[in-house]
Amino acid sequence: MAALQKYFSKVAARAHKSHLPLSIFSNGPSMGHHPNILSFQGSKLFYSSSSLSSSSPSSSSSSRPDPFARRPTAKCDPYGQGGKPLNLAQAASLLPTVDTRWKLWRNPNGDQDFTLDRQDDDEEAVIPFAMVRDYFHAEYLHGAQFVKHVAAVAQMNDHFPYQVSLDRFVSKRTWQIRTRVICRTIVLEGLSHHDFMLATLLDVETNRPELRSLLLVVPTTTTTTTTP
Q1: Does one domain contain both 50 and 112?
Q2: What is the DSSP track for the chain?
Q3: CATH code for position 209
Q4: For the segment 144-186, what is each residue's pLDDT rounded down to a tens digit?
Q5: 199-218, pLDDT tens digit by residue?
Q6: Where is the composition biased (Low complexity) (predicted)?
Q7: Does 87 share its domain with 31?
């Protein structure tokens, strides 16, 4: 464990010196190999091969309590939703306001089937788990640079994705490089209007020419593929 921590310290120093994001260096000392998966969730950066994480010095650097860091109630909800996540009817009505490549997930497994499975079910009773969009890249470094832009948008607007991951996997005998952004408000245990606002801001950001150069245009059907 001590050796692994020493390794990551060296990697961090190298990344700082090279002005590269630490996120592109993750699991293991085998130089020249891509990590299988890398993700940060909330304000933490996770490495897939260990339990090491580094906390971001955002609002946690202050001793002042953050109202967004506790479970909202019907009377005290900074998200303005009465302490409840958006139900399927509400989320579906907001979905046309964002890029069509954003998809609703019914559960953490990436299930997009919202077929009502009981007669007494209705759209107001179903709570989507999250909203998700996949972005694809020609090069792994393009993905790492794109993740930095996602983080910057989140930091500037003080609302963060539930998870952002950069992974490289085989699909149809070719390597695919993908950034997956999952939006979900943890304390509400579902979606908030803030998640849709963040998605909108990311849509605007990805239309900038300098960011379009980091992205591949792929068929919509490919972008809905769940994690291998």
Answers
A1: no
A2: -HHHHHHHHHHHHHHHHTT--GGG--S-S-TT---SEEEEETTEEEETTSS-EEE--SGGGSSSPPGGGS---SS--TTSSTT----HHHHHHHGGGS-TT-EEESSTT--------STT--TTT----EEEEEEEESSHHHHHHHHHHHHHHHHHHT---SEEEEEEEEETTEEEEEEEEEE-BGGGTB--HHHHHHHHHHHHHHTSHHHHTT-B---HHHHTPPP-
A3: 3.30.1360.20
A4: 999 999 999 999 999 999 999 999 999 998 999 999 999 999 9
A5: 999 999 999 999 999 999 86
A6: 53-63
A7: no
